């Protein structure tokens, strides 16, 4: 199912680049109080996630699990902003740090990548073991959205997934196409920004070599670390788009049609499982959606949309 959303940007802020910068890099307020959840992975690495539990929360109420995007962490502006909002509403919130990120910076040998659904599954298993009656809503942002969808696609059915509902915001479901778009000269700012985040990781694997592109990083670091033949093999195996036709888990996906480097048409070019709902917005950039939310002094339209989707999700006991 595909529907069109009526997002209205703030006057003068309809540019996808302005939307991207305001929504992704604009820090507002503090994170909610949290405790650390350490999760051991099968290869010996560990993750450190941040768990925020309201005093009024009970173990039959929803838990929101969030996955950050490339170069992000539990401390990314959108992760802080949304975790604070959900916490204030009364949801328990878990912010996952992928390998080597955030509070788990020195706990992993291997770097994360866009297909580490097995890592997220370990986190889901850990939190489900703590509170088995709490329904889980998984939200992935950007690269984290692809990881979330890949996890949903790998699950045999609802019970196997352990997640009651999955939401992906601006996910690069076709990693090959995303790399082609972000490598275009018009997107040099974004490409160089993300490459800067990746270079410290590259130095750990190939000292003395300065990576000139994101593709080169994936070809030499991601592929070497994880046993892929090359970057193209990694993109093929990690892209969630190939799992969409047969997906059994309940999912919602949000795309902005003017996203500078995520092509929404990737989701239109293949059949979709009936369990997937895709929402398109004419504007919004990459994870921006800064505009009229319908509430006074609140301009993060995305935040209210996600709350609406979460509240409407009916979770089976």
TrEMBL record:
<dbReference type="InterPro" id="IPR050960">
    <property type="entry name" value="AB_hydrolase_4_sf"/>
</dbReference>
<keyword id="KW-0378">Hydrolase</keyword>
<comment type="similarity">
    <text>Belongs to the AB hydrolase superfamily. AB hydrolase 4 family.</text>
</comment>
<dbReference type="InterPro" id="IPR012020">
    <property type="entry name" value="ABHD4"/>
</dbReference>
<protein>
    <submittedName>
        <fullName>Putative hydrolase</fullName>
    </submittedName>
</protein>
<feature type="active site" description="Charge relay system">
    <location>
        <position position="286"/>
    </location>
</feature>
<dbReference type="GO" id="GO:0047372">
    <property type="term" value="F:monoacylglycerol lipase activity"/>
</dbReference>
<dbReference type="Pfam" id="PF00561">
    <property type="entry name" value="Abhydrolase_1"/>
</dbReference>
<dbReference type="InterPro" id="IPR000073">
    <property type="entry name" value="AB_hydrolase_1"/>
</dbReference>
<feature type="active site" description="Charge relay system">
    <location>
        <position position="142"/>
    </location>
</feature>
<dbReference type="InterPro" id="IPR029058">
    <property type="entry name" value="AB_hydrolase_fold"/>
</dbReference>
<feature type="active site" description="Charge relay system">
    <location>
        <position position="259"/>
    </location>
</feature>
<dbReference type="GO" id="GO:0034338">
    <property type="term" value="F:short-chain carboxylesterase activity"/>
</dbReference>
<feature type="domain" description="AB hydrolase-1">
    <location>
        <begin position="63"/>
        <end position="205"/>
    </location>
</feature>
């Amino acid at each position: 199912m595909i529907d069109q959303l009526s997002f209205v940007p703030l006057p003068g802020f309809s540019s996808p680049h302005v939307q991207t910068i305001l929504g992704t890099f604009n820090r507002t307020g503090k994170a909610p109080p949290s405790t650390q959840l350490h999760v051991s992975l099968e290869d010996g690495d560990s993750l450190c996630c941040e768990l925020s539990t309201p005093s009024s929360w009970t173990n039959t109420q929803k838990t929101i699990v969030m996955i950050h995007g490339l170069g992000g962490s539990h401390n990314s502006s959108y992760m802080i902003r949304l975790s604070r909002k959900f916490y204030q509403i009364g949801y328990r919130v878990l912010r996952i740090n992928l390998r080597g990120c955030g509070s788990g910076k020195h706990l992993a040998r291997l770097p994360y990548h866009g297909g580490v659904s097995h890592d997220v599954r370990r986190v889901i298993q850990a939190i489900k073991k703590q509170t088995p009656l709490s329904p889980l809503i998984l939200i992935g942002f950007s690269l984290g959205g692809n990881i979330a969808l890949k996890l949903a696609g790998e699950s045999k059915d609802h019970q196997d997934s352990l997640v009651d509902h999955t939401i992906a915001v601006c996910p690069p479901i076709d990693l090959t196409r995303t790399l082609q778009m972000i490598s275009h000269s018009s997107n040099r700012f974004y490409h160089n920004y993300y490459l800067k985040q990746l270079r410290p990781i590259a130095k750990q694997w190939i000292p003395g070599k300065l990576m000139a592109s994101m593709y080169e990083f994936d070809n030499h670091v991601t592929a070497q670390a994880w046993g892929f033949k090359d970057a193209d093999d990694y993109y093929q195996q990690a892209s969630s788009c190939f799992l969409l036709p047969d997906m059994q888990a309940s999912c919602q996906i949000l795309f902005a049609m003017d996203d500078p480097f995520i092509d929404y048409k990737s989701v239109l070019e293949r059949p979709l499982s009936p369990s997937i709902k895709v929402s398109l917005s004419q504007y919004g950039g990459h994870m921006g959606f800064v505009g009229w939310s319908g509430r006074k002094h609140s301009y993060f339209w995305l935040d209210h949309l996600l709350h609406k989707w979460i509240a409407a999700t009916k979770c089976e006991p």
